[in-house]
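Final report, Chapter 2: Outcomes

The project's central promise was a pipeline that accepts a single protein chain and returns its three-dimensional structure in a standardized token representation, suitable for archiving and comparison. That pipeline is now operational. To close this chapter, we reproduce one record exactly as it appears in the project archive, with the input sequence first and the structure output second.
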Amino acid sequence: MASVFGKILLITGNAEYLSERTRKRAVQAITSEQPECEVAEVVGSALAQGEMAALTSPSLFCSSSALVISDIQELGDTQQDELIAYAEQTSSDVAVVLIHSGSNKGKGLLDKLRKCPAVAEVKGEAPKYERDFSTWVRQEVRDLGATIDPNAALLLVNAVGHDLRALAGAADQLVSAIERGTPVSTEIVHQYFGGRAEVRGFEIADAAIGGRISLALEQLRWAEANKVAAVLVTSAFASGIRSLAKLASAPGGLRDADLAALIGAPPFKIKSLRGQLRDWDQAGLAKALTAVARADVEVKGGGADPAYALERMVLQVAAARSVR
């Protein structure tokens, strides 16, 4: 394994959890290679002029040293120059970890650091779309030495939500629960997270959009009893109906992968969306979106009874279908 000393690890991205996890792993690699090494940690805004040289010098107790600077976008101009000067000529006895928040601030510093041969970058960007979260879960499971079925990954996201820390913990729990070489299936996800998955807004939305009113209302009441936030339900309805509207207006002849990219849904969900769309027309979709928008305003404080607003939304969305 290559030494981490004499190198600079640059951690960038807007996902705080991913940046923090990478930082911890980097520090563990440093102390694993040199157990006696002292790791100094400092925030960019607190780094004084000339302090860089002191922090990258060996200590009295160990010939090597390590430095972690977080929020490097807050470094002053002089401190940035000092950091670049070190990056251009690193010390073989020093390991450095730099953390940037992913904002536009400090972009010039990043550009200069990326040109230095000693700098290796790890990017930690948070997923943007629903399909991206299920893709992230699949990669997380692969990193743990296992595989997960695409439908199981989507089910886990629906059950746990979009918090990466919670998703990583759930993935670790699932991988630990299966035999080596066995993929994580939807059955396994249901076994461990089924109670949470059943009250997720996406399943309520799917039931209502599919005209299964009794099931939608049953799940809605279950969600209310378990204090699922009302805005999660309206958000799921909005997402589901918008996906149908995008599919309805999509050009003909597109492959599932292209449709998925256009709509913002996983490729394997296109088939179910096509099935749902058979019972909808443009007028019905417009009515459903209006009902969801009204409910969203009411659950965010514009109405007196969020539970009533959600139930009315379910009924209006189901009624907007135009079954042929």
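Archive annotation: Residues 282-302 form the longest helix (21 residues).
This record, like all others produced under the grant, will remain available to the consortium after the project formally closes.
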